[in-house]
Amino acid sequence: MGKKYHIWTIGCQMNVADSQRLGSELEKRGYEWTDEVEEADVIVLNTCVVREQAEQKIYGRLGSLKPLKTRGEGGPIVGLMGCLVGVKNPAPLRKAWPWVDVFMPPSEPGPLLAYLDGREWDYDAYYEQVKQRQALNAMQDGEIVLPAHVRGKQVTAHVPIIYGCDHVCSFCIIPYRRGRERSRRIGDIVQEVRSLVEQGVKEVTLLGQIVDRYGYDVPDGPRLPDLLRVLHDIEGLERIRFLTSHPNYMTDELLRTVAELPKVMEHIEVPVQAGNDDVLRRMRRGYTVDDYRRLIDRIRELVPGASIITDIIVGFPGETEEQFMDTYNLLAELKLDKAHIACFSPRPHTAAARWEDDVPWEEKERRRKMLDDLMHDIMAEINSAYLDQTVEVLVEDLHKGKWRGRTRTNKLVFFEDERDRRGDLAQVRITWTGPYSMQGVPADAPPKTPVLDMENILTP
């Protein structure tokens, strides 16, 4: 029997991309993917600690692996990767979880690959690279061969273009866990995207904690608009998206580039986090509510018809009912296409963790549900405008007997078709809309012939 690997992933799209690339590297060493963790010779947990709930899931999963590791000779190699490891010395983690063999910083497979090759990995050199803003992770510099179990089936892919973050918001653990900003070389990104397209990928989403700061860490370096223009020329690539943006770096040049390039989708993800200036100041976001309003107006002016998605944190330390209602009223006013809403949870090493977490959990949940209910109605209203419209859908896969894909504005669409539509840019007429998805029929489908009840027709 061949060697097998299993990767469990939680968290952001960056982690999804990192796990897929790690799987590719393991397959180069002769490993095969397995869904069954008990069968795996190598088990990796790729972790997220942005929210306390995610962190608790990781602890539970780590505990479940201990019996596998301690059952005797021939136990699996266990690796821990991602933000739980961070960019600090993993010695405390080794003490807490002695059954874990390898600790890998975010987006960095080096320690595991060195372990499998019988080599020592130089953590100190890695930490110095992070401090010096050097682009890391040779695994992602250039061509990538997708893991065998998704190769030829994957229509969309995530491509990291900038690691780390320098914008130290008071609630966010990412700068501490992922280190300083490091932009990848534009040539390496292009080479990776070309290799993905050659393997059947039609759409790429460019990733960064603050993706619109791409190139800001490089003196006179290229910026995101420059990268978009280069990627736009890749033959066979149909669509380009990018996320997540920060309001302060969403420039008019970037928005005009989105509007000008047909392959770049009219889909902007730009978090506001709160609708009150005092809360935004304590969050260290660096803009006001009116700044955000003006940005939304600019997006809608420069990229007509764009979908706009935001993030909200409720129950931030000190947030009063009045301040929360400012957020509620802002969402009601702006009518954005979607909002990712989360309850505040204090994260170690952040400024907000030192403040009193004075909004009870039940109150946080009440506020979250209020915003969820509001967005449900707004999303239903926005999507209803698509009824009877014909839209372009990039078909990703078959789900419960229906083809599933997304519009240019990232709306989820399902439709039935006996043909193999995976990877197609299908024209779909929308026949039903809801707040979270839509249903349709192929625009080129022949009309259904009505079934006549001949018995009733012929009966006097």
TrEMBL record:
Catalytic reactions on record: N(6)-dimethylallyladenosine(37) in tRNA + (sulfur carrier)-SH + AH2 + 2 S-adenosyl-L-methionine = 2-methylsulfanyl-N(6)-dimethylallyladenosine(37) in tRNA + (sulfur carrier)-H + 5'-deoxyadenosine + L-methionine + A + S-adenosyl-L-homocysteine + 2 H(+)
Ranges of residues in domain MTTase N-terminal: 3-121
Keyword terms, alphabetized: 4Fe-4S, Iron, Iron-sulfur, Metal-binding, S-adenosyl-L-methionine, Transferase
Cofactor: [4Fe-4S] cluster
Broadest EC class assigned to this enzyme: transferase
GO molecular function: 4 iron, 4 sulfur cluster binding; metal ion binding; tRNA-2-methylthio-N(6)-dimethylallyladenosine(37) synthase activity
Sequence ranges assigned to domain TRAM in this UniProt record: 384-444
A Pfam entry, by short name: Radical_SAM
InterPro entries per UniProt: Elp3/MiaA/NifB-like_rSAM, Methylthiotransferase, Methylthiotransferase_CS, Methylthiotransferase_N, Methylthiotransferase_N_sf, MiaB_methiolase, rSAM, rSAM_horseshoe
CDD domains found in the cross-reference section: Radical_SAM (cd01335)
GO cellular component term, pick one: cytosol
Enzyme Commission designation: 2.8.4.3
Known function: Catalyzes the methylthiolation of N6-(dimethylallyl)adenosine (i(6)A), leading to the formation of 2-methylthio-N6-(dimethylallyl)adenosine (ms(2)i(6)A) at position 37 in tRNAs that read codons beginning with uridine.
Entries under NCBIfam families matching the protein: miaB-methiolase, MiaB/RimO family radical SAM methylthiotransferase
PANTHER family: CDK5 REGULATORY SUBUNIT-ASSOCIATED PROTEIN 1, MITOCHONDRIAL TRNA METHYLTHIOTRANSFERASE CDK5RAP1
Protein name: tRNA-2-methylthio-N(6)-dimethylallyladenosine synthase
